[in-house]
Description:
By secondary structure, the protein is α/β, with parallel strands linked by helices. The chain is built from 19 helices and 14 strands.
Amino acid sequence: MRWLVDAIYLCAAAALAPLVAYRAYATGKYRSDWDQRRGHVPDLPAGRTRVWVHAVSVGEVNAVRGLVQAWRTRSPETEIILSTTTDTGIARARQLFPDLMVIRYPLDLSWCVSRALDRIKPSLVVLVELEVWYQFATLAAGRGIPVCVVNGRLSERSCRRFAWVGPVVRQMFGSLAWVGAQDEAYAARFRRMGVPGDRVAVTSSMKWDTADLADTIAGSEVAAAALGLDPGRPIWVCGSTGPGEEEVALAALQRLWAVHPGLQVILVPRKPERFDEVADLIVKKGFTCVRRSESPDGTTRSAGEGAVFLGDTMGELRKFYSIADVVFVGRTLAKMGGSDMMEVAALARPVVVGPHTENFADTMRQFQAGGGVRVLRSDLEVGEPALELAGVIDALLADPEAAKALGAAGREVVKRNRGAIDRTLDALMERMPHAKQHTA
């Protein structure tokens, strides 16, 4: 089975090579750390208790930061190695954990994975959300290294895809030592995919714990001043937006300026490679684009009339959320899975989303039950999203007390759901004694 999986990977790599090469040329992705991708990671000494935590990209790195911090507090002698797959994930991990070793996750080819495991020598592997790969999971388990999934989520769509390679998937999921799922629906899918029932638990989402309950964020006022934002005028932030959503937001802004002429809007696309594209769109629609990357801290500018602000830097989204009067959380107007709204709610800012939040189904149920979110009915294909979005934002700006109540309700939902980190860490540490000691 192992060599068959390698052969499938190599055939897929050959077929996709031209596309990867083009994207590397066009976007700058996939250009770095190829030695580490092939498993040439640092060769660490044996004899230490070592946990390898893998978080694929920025969202997963953010989700696991509380767990890593709690683990280091509870067990400071444990060495934690953090891996990630994307360039943005690497940058965020090094920003959050400057004193930890951060490496690139190896390609899921048997010899690359074996080389990486030989060098890292982990006592335990922790995969964040759904980063389960066949060679990595089964090779680690075959060495007696427990492989656990935390903050686990598994969509029905992913289950349907996995069904095409049933025997491989069942062996892969069956090798997992433990899964901490975000809710019962996810837990049931992990069991359906082959994880033994006694190895699956519902822990809730760790993002509830890592969403900092705060009214202000350090550096937010400095960033606002650098952009030329007027704190006396309302601010609408559209965060983690995806393709098509910025155009909807700009169309809504045109309507909103008729009744709220002082409104300021900040667009923050989810993917950095779209920053230039969105900047061009802003100008094409007749606005002046003020980019955060061109407005560093310590500078001052006057934005002028007709300005739209673009958050085109990494790690500053929470700063923008903290100065907002109302927030639209993106990737929700099309079937893109949604984005994390917990950070906004923890800041007690009123949250507006589109109808597509499939990756955060339980989170949405909690917010809707607690009256902490407004959900649009229209999307990019049905209805008039710009008109509906403008109407909801207008209503919240026109009634500050209602907006404040919405934000407060969202924060209460966050407070009620905290505790997943402690539950998860308890379960992981229970599995540490079962890990074999690896010697050089």
